[in-house]
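Appendix B, record 7
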Amino acid sequence: MAANAGPAAIPPSIDATLELLRSADYVADRSLATVLFLSLRLGRPLFLEGEAGVGKTEIAKVLSQTLGRKLIRLQCYEGLDAAAAVYEWNYAQQMMAIRLAEAAGDHDRAQIEHDIFSRRYLIERPLLKALEPSVEGPPVLLIDELDRTDEAFEAFLLEILSDFQITIPELGTIKAEHPPIVIITSNRTREIHDALKRRCLYHWVGYPDAAREIEIVRARAPKAPQKLTEALVLFVQKLRQLDLFKSPGVAETLDWASALTELDAVALDPNLVTDTLGVLLKYQDDIARIDQAKASELVNEVAADMKARV
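Structure tokens (predicted):
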């Protein structure tokens, strides 16, 4: 999208939503496109849950790109609080303003307090920024990996997700003129409270089947030879059937496709697989399970599957 293009309209149908995603090389199934369409049309936050690397975060990036909206990302982590996510006061500048006022002989405490608790001294964090009006239209607010925070932080989100407003005791309530597009993701390392889920539409983003994953790789890693793309996707699909600590996601499939292309590979072989497993698997115990013999077995199964597909 051109840098000077204005914000695009919300897609008018599920098919248009699918096309919008495809225009940014995001290959979605119809169920995801349906809930995304409803989220956009109804102005409701969308809560996406699923394993890491299946494309949840990418949805927000694609919407920002295709709709011409600013992307505001809140990356969640343990211990995240309102000061880091919503707002905080610039205490250093407030203290300086107090000292300057006292030096100038201004001892009106009420006026000083009024001045230092104005928007001038307010540091806006992602959640507050998302409520600000913009010429680009309402932004896309990505609240990423909410499950990394605790229940106390979820409580901060309830007012925002219900009424798209934030109450600041010293200033009052700040309400968005037009609600942002809200995408919330979770890797489900813990359950999110029902009170938050009720404010959202929900969708579980699972691993794609082989046909869709091949289409994804062709869209995102087009330099990979066609036969290699099919083989590596079928291999990854077989890995996901094993009892691994962390199965490879679509992100790892794309990384592997790029890595094999850089190595000028045209087909899978056991040596190539074992040498590049660190691109797919991120735990040593998982890598140790795929030894030379297991790699040979899986490569042979992939070859047989590809022969049967012809």
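Remarks on this record: Residues 292-309 form the longest helix (18 residues). DSSP finds 16 helices and nine strands in the chain.
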